[in-house]
């Protein structure tokens, strides 16, 4: 970020100025499109990597309710940072995995916490980690602009 260029100050600048041809619009568009594609691929790799690791937890449980809750929280923070949610195995909605205390189940129950038709709903309830499939975090309701913005590069977030 230099100010106005006083041309003769550094003679060497003359060389590098050759590279300073204006970016044409098409080129700019290509760079951005390429980057989006590449980031989508990386995002997909991240999602599949996390999902593969998580499959090692499936059907298992920590020894205590607190440990299971800590696991669910850590898991949520991890995937939330990647713009991901777990997919409810019952209805397919993007959800947050939580562990609720439950009578007769000292280690708690794994539930999918999500909003369906604007109402907070819980599905699942197994005593062990359910199968965890990762999906993109839904865009907030009423934010059409953001949704439109995202749909351009979405790989296919299931409805
Ligand atoms: Zn559900």
Care to describe what's here?
With 159 residues, the protein is an alpha+beta fold. The protein has one domain. It has helices at 13-16, 25-54, 65-80, 144-151; strands at 84-87, 94-102, 105-116, 119-126, 134-136. The protein has a 5-stranded antiparallel beta sheet with strand order 4-3-2-1-5. Zinc ion binds next to strand 3.
Low-confidence stretches: 143-159
Spatially, the strands of the biggest sheet line up as: 4-3-2-1-5
Radius of gyration in whole Å, from Cα? 24 Å
Amino- and carboxy-terminal Cα gap: 45 Å
Shape: elongated
The gist of it:
This protein has helices at 13-16, 25-54, 65-80, 144-151, and strands spanning 84-87, 94-102, 105-116, 119-126, 134-136. The protein has 159 residues and is α+β, with helices and mostly antiparallel strands.
Topology:
Layout: H1 13-16, H2 25-54, H3 65-80, E1 84-87, E2 94-102, E3 105-116, E4 119-126, E5 134-136, H4 144-151
Antiparallel strand pairs: 1-2, 1-5, 2-3, 3-4
This protein binds zinc ion (ZN).
């Amino acid at each position: 970020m230099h100010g106005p260029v006083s041309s003769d100050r550094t003679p060497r600048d003359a060389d590098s100025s050759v590279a300073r041809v204006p970016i044409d619009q098409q080129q700019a568009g290509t760079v951005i499109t390429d980057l989006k594609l590449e980031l989508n691929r990386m995002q997909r790799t991240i999602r599949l990597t996390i999902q593969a690791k998580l499959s090692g937890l499936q059907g298992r449980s920590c020894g205590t309710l607190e440990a299971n809750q800590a696991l669910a929280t850590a898991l949520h923070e991890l995937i939330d940072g990647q713009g991901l949610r777990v997919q409810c195995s019952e209805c397919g909605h993007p959800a947050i995995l939580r562990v609720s205390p439950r009578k007769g189940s000292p280690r708690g129950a794994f539930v999918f916490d999500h909003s369906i038709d604007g109402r907070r709903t819980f599905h699942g309830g197994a005593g062990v980690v359910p199968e965890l499939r990762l999906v993109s975090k839904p865009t907030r309701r009423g934010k059409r602009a953001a949704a439109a913005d995202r749909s351009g590069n979405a790989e296919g977030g299931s409805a």
